[in-house]
Structure formats: structure tokens, C-alpha cells
UniProtKB/TrEMBL annotation:
InterPro entries: Methyltransf_11, SAM-dependent_MTases_sf. It holds the Pfam family Methyltransf_11. Keywords: Methyltransferase, Transferase. GO terms for molecular function: S-adenosylmethionine-dependent methyltransferase activity. This is Class I SAM-dependent methyltransferase. The keyword Transferase applies. CDD domains: AdoMet_MTases (cd02440). It comes from Kribbella antibiotica. GO terms for biological process: methylation.
Length: 271
């Protein structure tokens, strides 16, 4: 039996079109606390060279710059980079944003003291290549710090709901595997020493489950794009499925949403 090679470039082209649809920063900006906690977990120091990979609108890069690090963000979605630049300018933070692929970073070997990613690099379709690139640009003795949604948490369930409507390309690993210790051990092996592995929770706060669903349909690019391919009746069914996701994780009793979403925070030192 012969296996069919995965066309990662075609997958990334499709992914990029998704992230450039909608207005993802309206979702991503609500996740800023994840980046602030990751910056503290990585013990960032003033003056360190810090790279935020798959930075989106720059949450981790901005967190690094607030700590007087020399911060750079890299992403392939130019609209998200533009919003990152706007955010940095509004906060008077010196952050450099560059266009680039997490699986082929346009940066020299061993050029950063700290490499961060908050729910970003996990979406690179070729997991091993992305992990290798994180290692390549990190200095020996430098730190790699990642925050990734777990398979069993709320966002993992959100992705499973989405895949019912749009199955992923054959052979491509789930992004939420980055939220498991075993997968990280497989990706990085003995090239790093894991110094901290912590399960955390982010709380999604919305007016109602329906508000959550509509916010993601309107703004979360891949979901916006998928919804746009459905007819009216299926759009309503899809939105109802999305609204069911936070209900299972919601602890609010006042009709609003306060839904816990588990993610894995990891810090490792490159050997």
C-alpha cells in the first residue's frame, strides 16, 4: 500500500485564507492574559531577544515588550500583523512584526534568547517541522515557552464540532496534540529540558452561548469562512452546534457564559 504525501503548502494556503477572513483579533485580544502568564512562566528579562511565533495580532510579543525585551512577532497573515503594529503603536511599545511561515522562519539560527507561542504554532500543519524551527532559532540555553489548547478542554471540543462540518485534510494531526505532554516529548525529544509543564484554564466570558457562537461566526476567520459556505438552514444548525460547546464548560448561573477552557503551558530549555 502506498501512502499519499500531505500537501502542506496547499493546507497552509487554505489556512491563511481562513485567518485573513473575519476579524480574528476581536477574539484573540480577549486571550491576552494567556500571553502575560506565559511571559512570567518563561521568566522574561529586560533586554532579551524574544520571538513570538505565529503571533497573530501580537499578544506574546506585546507581553514581552512590556517587560522591556527586544520583541519580534512573526506570522503569515498580513492582516493580523497590521493589527499587531497598530496595537504596539497605540501602547508605545517597540515591537517588530515580520511576515513568515512558522514552518520556515525567515530568521537566523540561534538568534533568540526566548521563543514564545500562545495558541499559535499549534496550528502549523507539519508539527515536526514547526517544532524543529522553534529549536533552530533558539540559542543553546535559551527557552521555548508554549501555551496550547488541550484536546479534552472546551476549545478542543470546539474544534471537534467544527470538524463535523468540515473534516480536516487526511493525515494532518490535530493542533490540540500540542496540548499534550506526550506529543511534546515526541516533537522535541532530548533536544530540550522541560522545566515547567502546567495545565491552566482560560475563562471565556460572553453574554450567552448564542453570543459566543455569533462572535466566533463573525470574527474567528476559519469559522467565519466555513459558515459562509453553508446555506441558511445549515448556518443556523452550525451556530447552534457552536453555542452548545460552552454550555458543557459553563459555571455561570446568571444566564451569561463563564466557560473554562483548559490549555497546557510549557517551558523548556534548549540543550
Amino acid at each position: 500500500m502506498t501512502s499519499t504525501a500531505i500537501d502542506y503548502e496547499a493546507i497552509k494556503k487554505n489556512q491563511r485564507a481562513g485567518w485573513e477572513t473575519g476579524d480574528y483579533p476581536r477574539v484573540g485580544n480577549t486571550l491576552q492574559i494567556i500571553a502575560e502568564l506565559l511571559a512570567e512562566a518563561a521568566d522574561l528579562r529586560a533586554g532579551e531577544r524574544v520571538l513570538d511565533v505565529a503571533c497573530g495580532q501580537g499578544n506574546a510579543a506585546l507581553a514581552a515588550a512590556r517587560r522591556f525585551a527586544e520583541a519580534t512577532g512573526v506570522d503569515y497573515a498580513v492582516n493580523l500583523l497590521a493589527q499587531g503594529r497598530d496595537r504596539a503603536a497605540a501602547e508605545h511599545l517597540p515591537v517588530t512584526f515580520i511576515e513568515g511561515d512558522a514552518e520556515n522562519l525567515p530568521l537566523p539560527d540561534a538568534s533568540y534568547d526566548v521563543v514564545l507561542s500562545t495558541v499559535g504554532v499549534m496550528f502549523a500543519p507539519n508539527h515536526q517541522q514547526a517544532a524543529d524551527e522553534l529549536l533552530r532559532v533558539t540559542k543553546p540555553g535559551g527557552r521555548i515557552a508554549l501555551s496550547s489548547w488541550t484536546p479534552t478542554g472546551m476549545v478542543g471540543q470546539l474544534f471537534k464540532t467544527v470538524t463535523k462540518w468540515a473534516p480536516p485534510p487526511a493525515g494532518v494531526q490535530s493542533p490540540t496534540l500540542w496540548g499534550t505532554e506526550q506529543h511534546l516529548y515526541e516533537l522535541f525529544g532530548d533536544r530540550v529540558e522541560f522545566t515547567a509543564i502546567t495545565k491552566r484554564e482560560f475563562v471565556f466570558r460572553y453574554h450567552s452561548p448564542e453570543h459566543f457562537a455569533q462572535w466566533f461566526v463573525d470574527n474567528y476567520g476559519p469559522i467565519t469562512r466555513l459558515s459562509g459556505t453553508l446555506d441558511g438552514e445549515d448556518q443556523h444548525r452550525f451556530a447552534a452546534d457552536l453555542a452548545d460547546v460552552p454550555r458543557a464548560f459553563d459555571y455561570a448561573t446568571d444566564g451569561t457564559v463563564a466557560a473554562r477552557a483548559e490549555y497546557l503551558e510549557v517551558v523548556a530549555t534548549r540543550r
